[in-house]
Design brief:
Structural class: mainly beta
Oligomer: single chain
Low-confidence stretches: none
Length: 119
């Protein structure tokens, strides 16, 4: 059973930064495509970023492109989301995800992390 454990959420002022981490509880995390989704209050869950197994294939939603950076350390079974220039509209619960194939419909989800950006 794959488990994803997230950390790093919290409260930050607009313009600030946060770094989210997600540890994958399997030894072969390098075999999974990893990503982050988020869900704001009253809104549908949306894709944020993804990274392929080798780390050379990365994608972002338009709303975070240029501000967020996804990366991974397969030796530590960890994926990161560095969030800079945060805006109040980035406030949401952020979910780490993993899938053997793609982020179109991830098989595995973390428990979610609250990120709150104050204006």
């Amino acid at each position: 059973q794959v488990q994803l454990v997230e950390s790093g959420g919290g409260l930050v002022q607009a313009g600030g930064s946060l770094r989210l981490s997600c540890v994958v509880s399997i030894g072969a995390s390098g075999t999974y495509v990893m990503g982050w989704f988020r869900q704001a209050p009253g809104k549908e869950r949306e894709f944020v970023a993804s990274i392929n197994r080798s780390g050379n294939g990365i994608g972002y939603s338009e709303s975070v492109k240029g501000r967020f950076t996804i990366s991974r350390d397969n030796a530590k079974n960890t994926v990161f989301l560095q969030m800079n220039s945060l805006k109040p509209e980035d406030t949401a619960v952020y979910y780490c995800t993993a899938d053997p194939r793609s982020m179109s419909a991830p098989d595995y989800w973390g428990q979610g992390l609250q990120v709150t950006v104050s204006s």
